[in-house]
C-alpha cells in the first residue's frame, strides 16, 4: 500500500514538470525565436535500505532542461532591423546578468547607449563576442553571413559603411540546455565558439516554435491526469483504512 501511494506521488511530480513546461511555452508563444521547453529528464527508483528493496519510490531528475530545436515559421514583416536565422544555429547575446548565451531572437533595435539589442534588451555580440556599437543611421543592412553596414544619418542615401560582423554559431554537435535563467548554453554553462556558418535573412522574424493548440491540449490532459493521481492516493488511503479495520481485534 505504501508503494501504491509513493507511485502516485511520483506520477504527480512528473505531471508537475509537464505542467510547468507547458505553462512556460504558452506564455512565450509570441516571443520571436523562442524554443519550446521540454519536461526535465528523469526516472523513478526504489530506495534500498539495509541491502533490501523498500516500498518507497522517488523521482530523480537530471536537473537539465531540454528544448525543441524545430524551426519556427519565418514571417516577412519588412522592418530593416528584423533578422531571422534560416539554418541551424544561434546569435550570441549578453543578458543583463552578464553571462554570454545563445539566442535566435532577431527583433533588433538600438538602446540609449548606441548598442545593438534584441527585443529582450539583450546586447547583441559581434564575432569577437563584444557589444556592437551602432552609429546614428538612416538605413540598416545585414548580409547573409552577418556583416552589418549602415548609411550614416548625415551621409548620402545608398552609401553604406561597415560597422561590425554579427557573431553567430552553428552549434553543430553541441549538447545545449536551458539554465535556470532560461538562457541557452552548454551543460557546463559555456557557449560554443564563433564559426559564422549561420545563414541570415533581413526583413523577417522567426516566430516561436510553440504550437499553442498542442500545448493547450497537453495542459488539459495533464490536469486530468493530476486529478486522477489525487483520486488514486485517496483510494489508497481508503483501502489502507479498510485493511486496518479488518485487522483490528474484536473487543470482548
From TrEMBL:
It is found in: Bacterial flagellum basal body. It holds the Pfam family LlgE_F_G_D1. GO terms for cellular component: bacterial-type flagellum basal body. Residues 84-150 form the Flagellar hook protein FlgE/F/G-like D1 domain. SUPFAM superfamilies: Flagellar hook protein flgE. The keyword Repressor does not apply. One of its GO terms (biological process) is bacterial-type flagellum-dependent swarming motility. Its main location: other. InterPro entries: Flg_bb/hook_C_dom (IPR010930), FlgE/F/G-like (IPR037925), LlgE_F_G-like_D1 (IPR053967). Keywords: Bacterial flagellum. The keyword Ribosomal protein does not apply. Residues 201-241 form the Flagellar basal-body/hook protein C-terminal domain. Belongs to the flagella basal body rod proteins family. The basal body constitutes a major portion of the flagellar organelle and consists of five rings (E,L,P,S, and M) mounted on a central rod. The rod consists of about 26 subunits of FlgG in the distal portion, and FlgB, FlgC and FlgF are thought to build up the proximal portion of the rod with about 6 subunits each. This is Flagellar basal-body rod protein FlgF.
Amino acid at each position: 500500500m505504501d508503494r501504491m501511494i509513493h507511485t502516485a506521488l511520483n506520477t504527480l511530480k512528473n505531471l508537475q514538470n509537464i505542467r510547468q513546461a507547458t505553462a512556460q511555452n504558452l506564455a512565450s508563444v509570441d516571443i520571436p525565436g523562442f524554443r519550446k521547453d521540454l519536461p526535465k529528464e528523469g526516472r523513478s527508483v526504489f530506495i534500498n535500505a539495509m541491502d533490501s528493496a523498500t516500498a518507497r519510490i522517488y523521482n530523480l531528475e537530471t536537473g537539465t532542461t531540454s528544448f525543441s530545436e524545430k524551426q519556427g515559421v519565418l514571417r516577412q514583416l519588412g522592418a530593416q532591423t528584423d533578422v531571422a536565422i534560416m539554418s541551424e544555429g544561434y546569435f550570441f547575446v549578453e543578458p543583463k546578468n552578464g553571462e554570454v548565451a545563445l539566442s535566435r531572437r532577431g527583433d533588433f533595435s538600438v538602446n540609449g547607449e548606441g548598442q545593438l539589442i534584441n527585443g529582450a534588451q539583450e546586447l547583441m555580440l559581434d564575432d569577437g563576442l563584444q557589444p556592437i556599437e551602432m552609429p546614428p543611421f538612416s538605413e540598416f543592412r545585414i548580409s547573409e553571413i552577418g556583416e552589418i553596414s549602415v548609411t550614416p544619418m548625415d551621409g548620402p542615401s545608398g552609401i553604406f559603411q561597415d560597422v561590425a560582423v554579427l557573431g553567430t554559431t552553428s552549434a553543430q554537435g553541441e549538447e545545449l540546455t536551458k539554465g535556470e535563467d532560461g538562457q541557452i548554453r552548454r551543460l557546463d554553462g559555456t557557449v560554443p565558439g564563433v564559426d559564422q556558418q549561420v545563414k541570415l535573412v533581413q526583413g523577417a522574424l522567426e516566430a516561436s516554435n510553440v504550437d499553442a493548440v498542442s500545448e493547450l491540449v497537453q495542459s488539459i490532459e495533464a490536469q486530468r491526469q493530476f486529478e486522477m493521481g489525487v483520486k488514486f492516493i485517496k483510494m489508497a488511503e481508503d483501502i489502507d483504512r479498510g485493511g486496518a479495520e479488518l485487522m483490528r481485534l474484536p473487543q470482548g
